[in-house]
Amino acid sequence: MAIHSAKIHWQFTGEESFAGNRYSRAHTWSFDGGAVVPASSSPAVVPIPMSSADAVDPEEAFVASLSSCHMLWFLSVAARRGFTVLDYMDEARGTMGKNAAGKFAMVRVDLAPVARFGGEEFPTAEELEAMHHTAHESCFIANSVTADVVCTPIHPSN
User: Fold this and answer.
1) Cα-flanking dihedrals φ and ψ of residue 76, to 5°?
2) Can the peptide bond before residue 43 be classed as cis, meaning omega within 30 degrees of 0?
3) Sign of the four-CA dihedral 5, 28, 106, 97
4) Does 2 have pLDDT greater than 90?
5) Of 44, 2, 45, 6, which is closest to residue 27 (Cα–Cα)?
6) If we measure between CA atoms, which residue out of 103, 123, 99 comes closest to residue 113?
7) 53 vs 106: CA distance, rounded Å
8) Are 51 and 40 in contact (CB under 8 A)?
């Protein structure tokens, strides 16, 4: 069983009022490969200047994680089926709302991937849908969440 980890670090600067709930939510995410990502609460949740608009917020990271996992599985499925993917783009969107328990949660994630193919073989619309379905069913992240994860692939004209 693989263990995946991230180091999350926030530090009080002493310039804000912690007890008054007026402190910066800016922090960093550090990963084992050396990447350090500036992170913060979403300005939609905690107003600026307590949030940093130029940092990644957990909700964005959640959506990106689902999209990235789906893409990685899709590329694998396409390769196994003999197709060559030249380019893949997804403008994924997450929707916050009340879940079945009445708690505020990410209730839906919409993936809208566009895969462009090269080589001699191009998938039909049905094959493309099937590859996305297999990728979705295989995605570790999608299998780990309770939010509806909806994939609406866009078939390019190539």
Assistant:
1) -65, -45
2) no
3) positive
4) no
5) 6
6) 123
7) 19
8) yes
Phi/psi region, residue 21 (left: phi>0; alpha: psi -120 to 50; beta: rest), is left
Q: Tell whether the model's pLDDT for residue 128 goes beyond 80.
A: yes
pTM score: 0.87
- Dist. CA 76–CA 137, nearest whole Å: 13
Owner of token pair 């994939």: 151
Sorted by sequence, the CB contacts under 8 Å of residue 153 that are 6+ apart come out as: 111, 112, 113, 114, 115, 128, 129, 132
End-to-end CA distance of the chain: 40
What does the radius of gyration of the chain's CA atoms come to, in whole angstroms?
A: 19
Q: Tell me how crowded residue 19 is: count the other CB atoms within 10 A of its CB.
A: 7
Share the mean pLDDT of the chain.
92
Q: Is 130 exposed, middle or buried (0-12, 13-18, 19+ CB in 10 A)?
A: middle
Closest CA relative to residue 74, chosen from 90, 62, 63, 59 = 90
Q: How many residues does the chain have?
A: 158
Query: In the prediction, which pLDDT does 158 show?
Result: 61
Tell me which residue of 8, 136, 134, 152 sits closest to 66, measured CA to CA.
136
